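Standup notes
- DV: blocked on the single-chain target, sequence here:
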Amino acid sequence: MIYDYVYGGSYDEITLKANEADFRSIGMKQKVMVDLSEDNFELELLGQKMAWPLMVAPIGFMGMTAPRGEAKAAKAAAQAGIPFIQSTMSICPLEEVAAYAGVPQWFQLYVFRDRSIVKGMLERLQAVGCPVLVLTVDLTVMGKRERDARSGFIVGHKLSGRSMLDIALHPRWALDMGLNGRPIEFGNLKELPGIGNDIMSQAHFATAQADLTLSWKDIAWVKSMWPGKLVLKGIMTPEDAREAAKLGADGIIVSNHGGRQLDGASSSIMALKEIVDAVGDEVDVLFDGGIRRGSDIAKAIAIGAKACLIGRAMVWGLAAGGEAGAAQALQMLRTEFRMATAFMGMTRYEQLLGNRDCLILRE
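- DV (later): unblocked, structure below
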């Protein structure tokens, strides 16, 4: 059921599949006889120095793919010189992740109905030195993930017989989770009054806190309490991108939530060009959705994204090998990225950024 949660999308998974397939429709132009002896894809984004234009996306329940998964993934990202964005719905609390990684982490926030929860979270984030707040704006209504419904993953108030059988059939996972000596729960939420002491009841508490009134006016409220950089995640149209820029967002993330929300929505990569053209000079545009190879990162940067986010591509490594597996997945992507840019005759970030001439874009 953990595999299905990570892999799956909503309903028929049309958008999930399009996120990957539409990358395949973009070609790259090969360029030869270029001095490739040195390359440098370092950049500074939202006040943060990065070794190359990649960061780890926020992923709820990551700590169920490997024991203390968020802390280990954050450490792997820090060692790779890239940001890690921790999810509100993490198993590890934000303080543990920041301490284990050794550097402040970015944080993804859901705006709950009870705004005192949000205020308390923002205070905790400031206490650990979080530099960038990522506000998810496309999850007011939860998309139906039918794989999760079939597997029984966090859909009832208690584990179903099917879920318990699934766990019993995966003893190594169960043993790994048990050996860390801590219960599986949402570390960022577990201290809230009335939330319950198990992940099933905590998940239902968080779902009940979904705020259907959330709107653009709430951006000013968040900004009034947050002194750092603010990024809005879940932007898929030029109109919404312009509104985010007008309201003072420092960055936006072009994302359809990995195909887990509106099934039938455009792939992220097909939405990227229009959004960059609309607001690229006003706000930093980041990209999320469908990246499976380092060459995909190069394509998105060439279209105009300042940096890319990955989720599933790193989680497979984390699940298979813990911190070392996450580090290996990131290194594989970086090697593929450098190979792709080398074949295109690119040796610097500035050469690649927004350089659509190096792509074959099929309308």
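- Follow-up: Residues 2-360 form a domain with the TIM Barrel fold (CATH 3.20.20.70).
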